[in-house]
Amino acid sequence: MDIEALKKFVQTLAGAAQSIRLYPPQHPLVTRQLQICAGNLAMLFEEKSALRLGLADGILFCDEYLFRESNPALAEMTRLLQALELEGLELRAGIQPEEFTEFFTLVNQGGWQARGLEQTLEAQGIHHIIPLRKEDEPRKIFRRALAVAEHICQDVTLGRTPATDDAAAAVRDMVRSTLSNPHALTALSLIKDYDNYTFQHSVNVAVIAIAVGRACGASELELHILGLGGLLHDLGKLKVDIGIINKPGRLTDEEFEAIKKHPRLGAGIVEQMQGIPQEVIDIVGGHHLHFNRKGYPADLVGRPLSRLVDMAAVADAFDAMTTLRAYRRPVSPRQAAQEMRRASGTLLHPEFLEKFLRFLGPYPVGTAVRLRSGEIALVTLIAGEERQDLRLKVLFAASGAHLERPYFIDLPEENLDQIVGEVDPFLLNIDLDQHL
């Protein structure tokens, strides 16, 4: 990377940002600065397709260079990012000077605040400037776990034995987060990335299994075992024909027999990993045994297994029900709770299930509800463990109109009768990633 070109680019961009606040966008000073900026940027894009401009501890940086020096133009760029509450901007190859002009004009005038910055940029056709939001700690933990799960799957696909250290570290962070903020990671597990189902399902089951364990009074050590077992539970599917795994519709008897091998195949992989407790191997091998032990694999039936196996099975069932698959439409968390109760005592451990459902509450995070007022809101937070006080984000008016400025209300447990029913968030195009 040409550091001098990078420095010149940021200096001229910051100067243009400052000038656009002081002069009309068509002013010769602005035009000249953006032309110089575009030339330096074209040189940088010869080496990479995107640049990241942001703040690190309040200091402006661009990719590899930290601007420890300061001047009015750089201070202006810093002020702008702080005002937008952004971690940074990603600038993508193909950007034109006009996009910078429109971007800085837009943010200076505050014309994005009603719809939100991302939506406004999209509507204005500004596709090469991507806002990077500051992630809260649970979201960072979740994303790191996704990266770990992807690396583990890559190792298995390439015939390598996955390393244990990264997985254990990811689980340690998830346990810490769940102990301090019980519902945060569970809420993130409801934001589905269908393009990366394999990785996300593994992380989701780890997160939910830790939540099940917490609801059941498991020790911190047991929570780590549950998280690691959840993260690794489906590795055996990587050894099964992908056509069978993704087949829409009913499996043939032969195909189902192939699927039934994945717990044993997964346990075989995990056994080779360094320092893996037997309880984790039991979770991987036994997560489809069912509470009545009439599931598979048959060779584990009758063997004494850790109670954590049944806790992980509750987590696996919950994530499977709330995820879109080729053969199944997802259900809401509340509907999943109702379906799971029908499997209580046969497929799922009744005591562990009830404690987990109590943890989720009568209206779990991610449930869209209709209020007596006619408004539609999304449950974004359960305020306590002993009580079921809810925080709702009201998204639709009683008329059915989408609110451009949603607002929050708190609903104490004794006022839950203000909720008259559940609505399908998919039919209303409610983006959980935006609101949770």
What does this structure look like?
- It is a single chain.
- The protein is an alpha+beta fold and 436 residues long.
- The chain has three domains: 3-133, no CATH class; 137-360, Hypothetical protein af1432, CATH 1.10.3210.10; 368-435, no CATH class.
- The protein is built from 18 helices and ten strands.
- Strands 3-2-1-4-5 form a five-stranded antiparallel beta sheet.
- Helix 7 (165-180) crosses helix 10, helix 10 (220-232) crosses helix 14 and helix 14 packs across helix 15.
- The relative contact order is 0.07.
The count of β-strands is 10
The radius of gyration computed from the alpha-carbon positions, rounded to a whole number of angstroms, is 25 Å
How would you characterize the largest beta sheet? 5 strands, antiparallel
The CATH H-level homologous superfamily of the largest domain: Hypothetical protein af1432
How many domains would you count in the coordinates?
3
Give the helix tally: 18
The fraction of residues in strands falls at: 5-15%
Residues in helices, as a percent range? 40-55%
Low-confidence stretches: none
| Apparent shape | globular
CATH architecture level-2 label of the largest domain: Orthogonal Bundle
Overall mean pLDDT: 87
Q: Note the run of SSEs as H and E.
A: HHEEEHEHHEHHHHHHHHHHHHEEEEEH
- CATH level 1 name of the largest domain: Mainly Alpha
Any key phrases for this structure?
single chain; alpha+beta; Hypothetical protein af1432; 10 strands; 13% strand; hydrolase activity; Metal dependent phosphohydrolase; HDIG_dom; HD/PDEase_dom
